[in-house]
Automatic annotation (TrEMBL), chain A:
It is a multi-pass membrane protein. Residues 44-102 form the MrpA C-terminal/MbhE domain. The chain crosses the membrane at residues 76-94, 125-143, 149-165, 177-198, 218-237. It comes from Allochromatium warmingii. Keywords: Cell membrane, Membrane, Transmembrane, Transmembrane helix. This is Multicomponent Na+:H+ antiporter subunit B. Pfam families: MbhE (PF20501), MnhB (PF04039). InterPro entries: CPA3_antiporter_subunitB (IPR050622), MnhB (IPR007182), MrpA_C/MbhE (IPR046806).
TrEMBL record, chain B:
It is found in: Cell membrane; Membrane. This is Multicomponent Na+:H+ antiporter subunit D. It comes from the Bacteria. It comes from Allochromatium warmingii. Residues 127-415 form the NADH:quinone oxidoreductase/Mrp antiporter transmembrane domain. Belongs to the CPA3 antiporters (TC 2.A.63) subunit D family. Keywords: Cell membrane, Membrane, Transmembrane, Transmembrane helix. One of its GO terms (cellular component) is plasma membrane. PANTHER family: NA(+)_H(+) ANTIPORTER SUBUNIT D1, NADH DEHYDROGENASE. Its main location: membrane. The keyword Cell cycle does not apply.
Length: 250, 499
């Protein structure tokens, strides 16, 4: 009797994994058949199309922005809250003091190598350009593609590069917390002003003048660029705080 | 300028307070605000009952439905919002004096608990499917982090498990929303309800199954609820009280609401919901029989009651739906009491295992006495609200001449009696209570009366609702009517749009 035969069949073939794979494949096939076979043509009268035709009301040259910040601004507030929650959770779990033994073990294993000259010089050149680019994307969110989320992440990336290039560079958690707090509550307060003023009387209503004549200028679309700037500050501060927390934990 | 009692406050106020938390840390008012904000919202909700009884409040955000997002405050949603605000107020009052739970004090738990409230309120208030998904994420993520907030091994394991399974559920639900948008071009629930019949039947089934899996995981129904006892066991009992009292109830409401609204054929929806409810009820109660850890036992008991509530809602009939709302409230009261008692016990003893608690009733008469009251309320003994709510459900089924759910509910109640009396017997056992007394002396001083005040308030409410259910009968019947009347909802939402 050879060695091979003595191992029972169910140990040579992982039956559970196989069954799970087959089940998943069958479900995927079923799903695709339904999706391809049963789906109707794309409906022509979607909510998205209806919103596009009404875009001129907001006087925002970028139609995506008027949907994201105005028509569905409530969703954006929710997404900002989700990011805030994620940053809070990472801050809570990563920055908690670890037991001594784990800490010292981690330190002895990885003493980070100092960044090389290319990195330092490159970041010194790139940093102001990246920050400026991020600010531009945030402020022109209502005119051209981009906006608070994208610009905020670009700014946070600039600070991540500084962290990589300079081991002593730290983002101050207290100051980041205040930035987050001011921009987040600013967003909600702008929304509430829209609710309280009788001219708009709806949450996130555009209570500043937004004449269609100024479409495409930097100062246009009323409250939309203000909200997007706040979103930019908040996203930048939160993503920066996440980088900082992860670096401290590593 | 005008100040309106708009439903937006139930979401915006907790968010505003959570965002500006560094300010509250500096002014040292975290505890006061954590109690004050839900309390204020609870008073606002109670004040709105009379208005909403006339007509549902519809709060348009920026652009009128079906194009934009709106919040829909009808009697059913208002009842749940008031219940959520009450639950958070009570847990906040309990935590205020909890000197041992340092991980539940401070800025981050403050943020997480308030955003859990905002998420729960948003889930029941929103009238837009994608917005519903956003609130599902907000409530979900705050729950994942709250599970892990104690930052020890079991809590982190439970948090990770919850994070993975919750995200999978979110993806399933999102896929259903995407398919609905691709098929109908609408996201507003009322507009989707109108257009849903035109979708090909097979696609309807696919969407329904995806949404059912997503919401079934979130609302802890039978084939999808294997993760629940581990999460309830790993997280802090005061937080678990919120999961069982607030979070599950919100998801359960969303599931029933969407089933009523979107599924046109009530017969099919009835079969699915009642089967799931009955399975969840029986499997969870049978599993609870064998549990030797208090939090796991309470988790299974909570699942069983969720199944019972779904069974009553799923009948899609006004009489049982009113009973289901009553049982939902009564179960929240009882489980808040039981989990907070577990939290109190955990401040003094090291383990909540059955053997470790032998004879605890003789050492802590008041705490264990409160546990007994909570257990009797779940069982449904006469002077407590659990009796009245179960009676309403049974009466509803009897009036409709449907008898199998009645038999099922009575059998489940027998099983419940089996395991709760097992626990009560052990808690009052005369055996040498050495383990309990030892750990007591090593841990803390007796609690002040302020710790017991929220628990005694719960007992008072259970008695009040058990003896005088007519005080909330009107609100319950209105809520049942609002939940089941599909045409009224569609008309009230799209009628506003037509103006």
């Amino acid at each position: 009797m050879s060695q091979r035969q003595r191992v029972p069949l169910r140990k040579r073939v992982r039956v559970k994994t196989l069954l799970l794979t087959l089940l998943s494949a069958w479900l995927l096939a079923l799903f695709l058949t339904l999706l391809l076979g049963q789906a109707r043509d794309w409906p022509t009268a979607t909510v998205g199309d209806a919103l596009l035709t009404r875009n001129a009301e907001t006087a925002s040259a970028n139609a995506v922005t008027s949907v994201v910040v105005s028509y569905r601004g409530f969703d954006t507030l929710g997404e900002v809250t989700v990011l805030f929650l994620a940053a809070t959770g990472i801050g809570l779990l990563f920055s908690a003091p670890r037991p001594r033994s784990e800490l010292s073990a981690a330190e002895s294993e990885s003493t980070p190598a100092p960044p090389n000259e290319m990195m330092i010089t490159g970041v010194r050149l790139l940093f102001p350009v990246l920050v400026l680019f991020g600010v531009y994307i945030v402020l022109h969110g209502h005119l051209s593609p981009g906006g608070g989320f994208q610009g905020g992440v670009v700014i946070a990336t600039a600070f991540l590069l500084r962290m990589l290039a300079d081991p002593n560079f730290r983002l101050d958690h207290v100051r980041l917390g205040w930035l987050e707090a001011l921009s987040g509550s600013g967003f909600v307060l702008l929304g509430l002003i829209g609710l309280i003023l009788t001219t708009t009387a709806t949450f996130l209503g555009n209570f500043l003048p937004h004449p269609v004549a100024s479409l495409g200028q930097l100062v246009s679309a009323g409250v939309i660029p203000l909200i997007y700037a706040l979103v930019g500050v908040k996203v930048g501060a939160e993503v920066g705080a996440i980088f900082q927390d992860m670096r401290e934990a590593a | 300028m005008e100040f309106s009692a708009s439903p937006i406050w139930f979401i915006a106020l907790p968010m505003l307070a959570a965002f500006s938390s560094p300010l509250w840390v500096r002014w040292r008012v975290l505890d006061q605000l954590l109690l004050g904000i839900p309390l204020g919202l609870l008073l606002l909700a109670l004040g709105l009952f009379a208005t909403v009884q006339q007509a549902p409040l519809i709060e348009t955000i920026v652009i009128a439905p079906p194009l934009g997002i709106h919040l829909h405050l009808d009697s059913a949603a208002l009842l749940l919002v008031a219940l959520f605000c009450f639950a958070v107020t009570l847990v906040a009052a309990f935590l205020w004096h909890g000197a041992t739970e340092t991980h539940l004090r401070g800025r981050q738990p403050f943020v997480l608990i308030l955003l859990l409230l905002a998420g729960g309120n948003g889930l029941v208030l929103t009238g837009d499917l994608f917005n519903l998904y956003v609130f599902l994420e907000i409530a979900g993520i705050s729950a994942y982090v709250l599970t892990a907030v104690r930052d020890d091994r079991p809590a982190l394991a439970a948090g990770l498990k919850y994070l993975i399974i919750g995200s999978v559920a979110g993806v399933f639900f999102l896929l259903a929303v995407v398919l609905i948008y691709l098929q109908t071009g609408q996201l507003n629930m009322a507009a989707v309800a109108q257009a849903f019949a035109e979708i090909p039947p097979a696609m309807q089934g696919l969407i329904a199954v995806l949404a059912l899996i997503g919401l079934g995981i979130k609302s802890e129904l039978f084939p999808f609820n294997f993760w629940v006892p581990d999460v309830y066991r790993g997280s802090d009992p005061a937080i678990t009280a919120l999961f069982s009292g607030l979070l599950v109830k919100a998801f359960l409401f969303v599931l029933v609401h969407l089933a009523v609204l979107i599924w046109i054929d009530p017969e099919i929806a009835r079969i699915w919901l009642m089967t799931l409810g009955a399975l969840t009820l029986m499997v969870a109660e049978l599993a609870a029989l064998r549990q030797d850890e208090m939090r796991r036992m309470l988790a299974y008991s909570s699942l069983g009651q969720i199944g019972l509530i779904l069974l009553a809602f799923g009948f899609l009939h006004e009489s049982t739906a009113a009973g289901a709302f009553f049982h939902l409230i009564s179960h929240t009261l009882a489980k808040l009491l039981l989990f907070l008692v577990a939290a109190l016990l955990l401040r003094r003893v090291l383990s909540l295992h059955l053997d470790a608690l032998t004879g605890a009733g003789r050492v802590y008469p008041l705490t264990v006495g409160l546990f007994v009251v909570g257990a009797l309320c779940i069982l449904g003994l006469p002077p407590l609200s659990g009796f009245m709510s179960k009676l309403w459900i049974l009466q509803g089924f009897a009036a409709a001449q449907t008898f199998w759910p009645i038999a099922l509910i009575l059998v489940a109640a027998l099983i419940e009696a089996g395991y709760y009396f097992r626990w009560i017997r052990v808690l009052y056992a005369p055996a040498a209570a050495s383990a309990v007394t030892d750990s007591k002396t090593s841990k803390t001083a007796p609690e002040s009366w302020a710790t017991y005040a929220p628990l005694l308030l719960l007992v008072g409410l259970m008695l009040l609702l058990g003896i005088a259910p007519f005080v909330i009968e009107g609100a319950l019947v209105d809520a049942a009517r609002a939940l089941l009347d599909r045409d009224l909802l569609i008309q009230s939402v799209l009628g506003v749009a037509a103006q």
